[in-house]
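pasting Cytochrome P450 for the record, 411 residues
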Amino acid sequence: MTGVAQLEPFDPAHPDLITDPYPMFARIRESDPFHRSKPGYWVVSRYDHVREVLMNRKDFGTGDFVENLKLFYGPDFDVMANSGYRWLSDVFIMQDPPQHTRIRSLVTGSLTAKRVRALEPRIREICQELTDAFLADGHADLITQFAYKLPVMVICELMGIDYETPEMAALIAAIPEAFVVFEARKLTEPELTTANRRIDQLERFFRAEFENRLAHPRDDLLTSLAQTGAAPDGLTMQEATTVAIALFGAGFETTANIIGNGLYRLHRHRDQWDRLVADPTGLAASANEEVLRYESSLVAAYRTALSDTTIAEHPVKAGERVLTLVGAANRDGRKFADPDRFDVARGAADHMSFGGGIHFCVGAELARIEGRIAFEHLARTLPAMRVDLHGAAWRANFLFRGLTRLEAHWG
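structre below
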């Protein structure tokens, strides 16, 4: 390996990974592409290597959930005594076949392309409602007033949840505090206590929703998921609740980050915003793909070797963990020409931001539709807006990259 001595072992807690992870990603990708991390797992960062791991269902999977976490907490930690981790262990994206295959097929059977595409007119209406609410003010926080509200309202529409329910604010606040369990690191005691409490809260809400759907069926996603329980190998109530929380959270958290990250990049590269404003219909889809590539909301993904294997001719033993740096792969010059140039006309949809293989994001189509419509709408409605890039605040989260604040002014 070249340049190993010059590089510090990768540490997911490094503060630079929050502010700007890409210089560190580039150093690892170019100098030490098969890298040993501080916690002891392997780190891969080149596009071909990342794709190889994420697409290879034979040699890589999620592995032993409990043992994976004990890598960070130590051998005596009782993983399943924590409701946050107990919930996470049941989420199908954290499982291997055959359990993953069974649950994912039931989810995709409910979350059909037809159901998702039918939402497009409503997504456009929601965009208009949101901008109408703050247009006359001459300013807005694009994260809290648009990027988050849009996908929350859309996922509520899809699931058949009343967005105006008094519990909604608490449910939205619960997701980032609960989803911290996705981070492969040792959580602080307050973080873990809060995550457990938030998961308990979300489980109570969605269990009640499913009981309601079974008694009073509707034409919505929650009813469809609940009714799979009547079929052989259908979802149990606990499985349906677990899936619903995952879809609800991922359905707005990652999409909000795509929109927020995109607005940040489009205004940091103002010429690209101007190009989008000049042709919003023609460039919105391509711009969305470039945002996904250049400033991915999913920065990295973990896998476990299921058997002795190799990555780029380097041996990996069964049970060893591998971190794939998706954000580094998406800027690999071996795959993308001039990779550090943000270009809304690039249209490269072969980035790795939705993962790959059997764990490819089930909500990718919905995220693409929401991002495309959001960027097209804002370019038409607020073409002259100015974004406060210096005041932008990044969320303190390594795996899921996004902003907590992005102020804009116009008029």
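The domain at 4-409 is CATH 1.10.630.10 (Cytochrome p450).
Residues 1-5 have pLDDT under 50 and may be disordered.
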